[in-house]
Amino acid sequence: MSISPQQKTSLGHIRVLDLTRVLAGPWCAQNLADLGANVIKVERPGSGDDTRSWGPPYLRDQDGNNTSEAAYYLAANRGKQAITVDIATPEGQQIIRELAAKSDVVLENYKVGQLKKYGLDYASLKLLKPDLVYCSITGFGQDGPYAHRAGYDFIVQGMGGFMSLTGERDDLPGGGPQKAGVAIADLMTGMYSTIAVMAALTHRDRTGEGQYIDMALLDVQVAMLANMNMNYLTSGNAPKRWGNAHPNIVPYQTFATSDGHIIVAAGNDGQYRKFVQIGGQPELADDVRFATNPARVEHRDILVPVLADMVRRKSKQDWISLLEEAGVPCGPINRLDEVFADPQVVARNMKISVPHPAAGQVDLLASPMKLSVTPTTTPGAPPLLGQHTQTVLNELLGYGQEQINSLKSKGVI
Fold first, then answer.
1. What percent of the chain is predicted at pLDDT more than 70?
2. Which domains, and CATH codes, for the chain?
3. pTM of the model
């Protein structure tokens, strides 16, 4: 028996109604789309997802002119269908209810309680589809004293402790709190939400029971601090910022070479010994102050300046070649042009090009998930605003052309 392309994906049997915008929710929906789910993105008529206008840069059309698609929007919406619906109207609410009844998953990131007034909350939609998996993503969750606050990634990075750990040491030039270069709380919430949705779908497939998922950026930001959380819970001492150094391992940081920077991550004493031997200073491995990792951590302020002088004597490429040959973990600090030219990144096909209705072709990131039996899909380009409204209403909900035209004239779609 032949197997359809839909059956060859992990989630080809799943339909997702995506009521989210900006990043955390769309990132979750994009992961599900990569795995084959049919994701229907619902946006406001006229303006759409806020990120469509978060530029420059914007995607350019075939004549070199800016389109209305900002690069930010393109980052989180590949592989989806897009429809426009005004959910503040009774007709729009009815469309969402009909779509939810034909979906397996609903994703939303509205303010707490906002969808209830439209009859689009979990309790209301569960009556239409009892086995529905409904995931709400907010800044602070559905309960607690901050539940009704707006949640922004930057603020959550600060509140959740991340920025107390990120940035140069306070006693060094440039010291102070620093946010991540990408919206790490949003992205990790999208990833945790993906896992939660798939767990809920697995439970539904076993039992027939749907459920509600309450995801919060602050919860995720706190949870993802990993060993730093445990350093605090174990010792009672709040960890501090170490810049590019590591609180528990030395040397595990960046160093300036004669022509650039490298990362050296000597995770054990043997790797450290090889490092200083390559640098021409083997005595640094025999010195009792530096012979073991606990000793190196204790005496880091003495050792690191000596290592920094040692590393400056060779070029970046010389260090990387010598350290790799010796089995000492190391690497360069690449700009994104260097990332996409890196032979490993090229070999792993992390950049793909797909057709786009305005630009002709658009370069996108490939999903990093590589499954041997049910591979990720080759995604469609992030859709234009309302690109699939006609198709979805006609083919999925059975709306006739006259009904669709009437909804357009009223501004519902």
1. 98
2. 15-223+348-409 (3.40.50.10540), 252-337 (3.30.1540.10)
3. 0.92
